[in-house]
């Protein structure tokens, strides 16, 4: 009985690793690798606008045009801080939402949206610790 040479298994293992890596990196499901991880040191103040048409997620933009590069997710720093409910009623009256906090480094998907199908876009994530309604 002849044995197969051991080197035959090397290409098979490489094909398996390439396939497995592709499944992890190019997946239609969000994973823990998409979570934002590290906050930047610099604090920022932003005026944000809700993005119309974002059905299952709450997206915001730092410009009124809501261009793709200006979109972001907002995360509260604690359960004590939230977007005022009255903001959605007052936004047609010209009120704007001003948030204070820090960006996460890079882009990601907040944990609340990990179960969304299809996979939400990876955007900048801003963690706010206070909110103000302002009238321009």
Structure explained in plain terms:
- The chain is of the alpha+beta class.
- The chain has a domain at 42-134.
- It has 2 helices and 5 strands, in the order αβββαββ.
- The chain has helices at 9-25, 86-90, and strands at residues 39-50, 60-61, 71-76, 96-104, 124-134.
**Percentage of β-strand residues:** 25-35%
Order of helices and strands: HEEEHEE
Large-scale geometry = elongated
Mean pLDDT: 84
Count of distinct strands: 5
Q: Helicity level, as a percent range?
A: 10-25%
Major beta sheet, specifics?
Answer: 5 strands, mixed, barrel
- List the uncertain runs: none
Distance between the first and last residues' Cα: 86 Å
Strand order across the biggest sheet? 1-2-3-5-4
Q: Radius of gyration, Cα only, in angstroms?
A: 21 Å
Secondary structure class reads: alpha+beta
Question: Helical region count?
Answer: 2
Summarize the entry for a quick read:
The protein has 136 residues and is of the alpha+beta class. The protein is built from two helices and five strands; from the N terminus they run H-E-E-E-H-E-E. 16% of the residues lie in helices and 29% in strands.
What would the keywords be for this entry?
136 residues, alpha+beta, 5 strands, elongated
Helices and strands in order:
Blueprint: H1 9-25, E1 39-50, E2 60-61, E3 71-76, H2 86-90, E4 96-104, E5 124-134
Parallel strand pairs: 3-5
Antiparallel strand pairs: 1-2, 1-4, 2-3, 4-5
């Amino acid at each position: 009985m002849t044995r197969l040479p051991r080197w035959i298994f090397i290409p098979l293992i490489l094909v398996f690793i390439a396939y497995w890596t592709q499944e992890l990196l190019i997946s239609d499901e969000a994973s823990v690798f998409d979570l934002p991880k590290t906050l930047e040191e610099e604090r920022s103040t932003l005026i944000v606008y809700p993005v119309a048409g974002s059905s299952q997620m709450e997206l915001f933009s730092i410009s009124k045009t809501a261009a793709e590069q200006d979109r972001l997710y907002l995360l509260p720093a604690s359960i004590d801080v939230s977007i005022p409910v009255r903001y959605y009623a007052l936004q047609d009256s010209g009120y704007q939402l001003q948030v204070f906090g820090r960006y996460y480094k890079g882009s990601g998907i907040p944990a609340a949206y990990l179960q969304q199908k299809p996979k939400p876009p990876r955007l900048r994530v801003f963690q706010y610790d206070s909110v103000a309604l302002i009238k321009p």
